[in-house]
Amino acid sequence: MVTVRAPATSANLGSGFDVFGVALDRPADIVRVSKAEQTTITVTGVGSQFIPEDPARNTVGAVAEELDAPAHIEINKGVRPASGLGSSAASAAGAAVALNELYDRGLSRSELVPIAAEGEAVVSGAPHADNVAPSILGGFTIATADGVRSIETDIPLVACLPEIAVSTRDARRVVPDTASIPDLVTTVGNAATLTTGMCRSDPVLVGKGMDDPLITPARAELITGYDTVRSYALETGATGVTVSGAGPSVIAACHGGDRRAIGSAMLDGFSENGVDARVYQVSVGNGATIL
């Protein structure tokens, strides 16, 4: 039996749609695997009642098939489904690391990323690596067709999760099909700024690089109270605010001493719009850990 802790993540970070991601030090999924003749899945924890245990409809079932590693897989969900914090990716990442260890497949962490991404295709329709990459590798990750790069960084963050749901499929439907040259230039510049900030562990540069004129405005329309939450966070000291992944979580970069006040302001922003929420004061964390 192998047990793995796989962390929540935040993808896109505004300017890095389908490319950027960061591992969060909490919350996390716990994935436990043991050898079996065929794959079976049990799910407990937050939101488990909404997660199918049929291997053909669960991210970890696809991972087990990709690795040719049938197993009984137990998932204790710490990352709420449809949260924008990489819930399905955490399960897929945890299963990939655990099954690789259980069956001694000998694959590197980087080699496990595209395998876990195949699990993501079950819920999003395509094998995106922007969440599974940081959940496996940790740190700030850049996932492209040429592979994945991981950077260690130390950026204080606040993630605010409202009690509303936004499915990944719905969030992808609102993404615009085209972009103007000025918007494209702005986005590229912001992505470069964010990457520089991550390399330097500079929350000011990271915050500036979160601005995005293309994807975030469309997705923000799906999140009740987003504009208020963003405004309050910036007024309280956040260096940048954007939608986390597909939403509805909202993530803010900040200086460490500001996290408590910013989290409280974000909660107030949702509350004023009639939405309950919870807040996580987090940092960029490590990838999946074998316990």
TrEMBL record:
Under which name does UniProt file this protein? Homoserine kinase
Q: What does this protein do?
A: Catalyzes the ATP-dependent phosphorylation of L-homoserine to L-homoserine phosphate.
Q: Under the cellular component aspect of Gene Ontology, which terms does the record hold? A: cytoplasm
The Swiss-Prot or TrEMBL record describes its family as follows: Belongs to the GHMP kinase family. Homoserine kinase subfamily.
The cellular location(s) given in this protein's UniProt record come to: Cytoplasm
Q: Which InterPro entries match?
A: GHMP_kinase_C_dom (IPR013750), GHMP_kinase_C_sf (IPR036554), GHMP_kinase_N_dom (IPR006204), Homoserine_kinase (IPR000870), Ribosomal_Su5_D2-typ_SF (IPR020568), Ribsml_uS5_D2-typ_fold_subgr (IPR014721)
Positions annotated to bind ATP: R80, P81, A82, S83, G84, L85, G86, S87, S88, A89, A90
Pathway assignment reads: Amino-acid biosynthesis; L-threonine biosynthesis; L-threonine from L-aspartate: step 4/5
Please give the catalytic activity noted in the UniProt record: L-homoserine + ATP = O-phospho-L-homoserine + ADP + H(+)
The main enzyme category here is transferase
EC numbers listed for it are 2.7.1.39
Specify the GHMP kinase C-terminal domain's residue ranges.
197-266
| Keywords, ordered alphabetically | Amino-acid biosynthesis, ATP-binding, Cytoplasm, Kinase, Nucleotide-binding, Threonine biosynthesis, Transferase
Domain annotation GHMP kinase N-terminal: ranges:
60-139
Q: Which Gene3D superfamilies match?
A: 3.30.230.10, GHMP kinase, C-terminal domain
What superkingdom heads the lineage? Archaea
Span-the-membrane segments of this chain are: none
Q: Which GO terms describe its molecular function?
A: ATP binding; homoserine kinase activity
- What NCBIfam families does the record point to? PRK01212.1-4, thrB
UniProt-listed GO biological process terms: threonine biosynthetic process
Output the Pfam families linked to this UniProt entry: GHMP_kinases_C, GHMP_kinases_N
Keyword hit for Transferase: yes
